[in-house]
């Protein structure tokens, strides 16, 4: 999986990070920051993914043309990808599907400029709102295999992805793996559930994806991250909470949140021990709902991505404010000359834009003044 930049909705309580994310998203299609999927070595492949989580489908062909076939709308086969609002074509690279819907389960064809098929993806976007979450440390069990009630011997089971990396190093952390619903007939290859069922209208509590979590402990590696996001937040008086979003986070990557340097775990949430925060299951904890002011930090693949500082509150200890002031000063000193290549590029782009704008204004002014020189009158008061 490649890096992902996913921005939160604009909120009055937290605007700096939203602005940075919007700027970063201008560059990400070229930098490959989104989780991506490609056929290993074939021109046709089948996979299951999760709805509401951005994904990039690769097709390395100049002048590529994309068509899609949605399983629940066979009457309109085929369709042009450009007609779908949440699908963006990145020329010569592939397509980016933002927050895919379960109804977008189907076939995605990529053809070269001569109409020859380069790759075909058969994708089942399984409904993340039905995600079944279990934690090994709590003795919770995944879904059991069942027989599909279609009169045959079809078996419904979960096909598990490999475990993701541990979300913490040097100390106990957690790791997760995703599991997708598959159906298998005797002597046939398993097929993702909704690619198998197509437009058949049926529902079962077994027809859903899973996420399993367990504790882990791994040594630390040298960090390679070269930029960190700082942002401030304020608890909303109406909802008595605020949502924080971890930059570059994704359900397909390991994420860790800390509150005042204390890790927030799935085990604590699933056992109802953590009552002041909520990890959003639908995006693997990329978003965190907080109800109490604290210093929140998020890590992606064990690398610090962002620190969220509370705006001054009467009930925030003075020691916490002093500690944060010292951290911000140290971060400012440490960040001099160490901006990441993306941020440097953005700064350079903004600088060039400002310079060109000023030059344009100056040229316009001189041209205007030169044409009117004969009509100018000097007034002396």
Descriptive report:
By secondary structure, this protein is an alpha+beta fold. Helices cover 20% and strands 30% of the residues. Strands 10, 11, 12, 13, 14 and 15 form a six-stranded mixed beta sheet that branches. A hairpin with a 6-residue loop joins strand 13 and strand 14. The longest helix is centred in the last third of the chain and has 31 residues, at 341-371. The protein starts with 15 loop residues before the first helix and ends in a 10-residue tail after the last helix.
Please render the helix and strand layout as text:
Elements: H1 16-31, E1 36-37, E2 44-50, E3 55-58, E4 65-70, E5 79-80, E6 87-90, E7 94-97, E8 106-111, E9 117-126, E10 132-135, E11 146-147, E12 155-160, E13 173-184, E14 191-192, H2 193-197, E15 210-216, E16 229-233, E17 242-245, E18 255-259, E19 262-264, H3 266-270, E20 277-279, E21 287-290, E22 296-300, E23 303-310, H4 318-335, H5 341-371
Parallel strand pairs: 1-3, 2-9, 10-15, 16-23
Antiparallel strand pairs: 3-7, 4-5, 4-8, 6-7, 8-9, 11-12, 12-13, 13-14, 13-15, 17-21, 18-19, 18-22, 20-21, 22-23
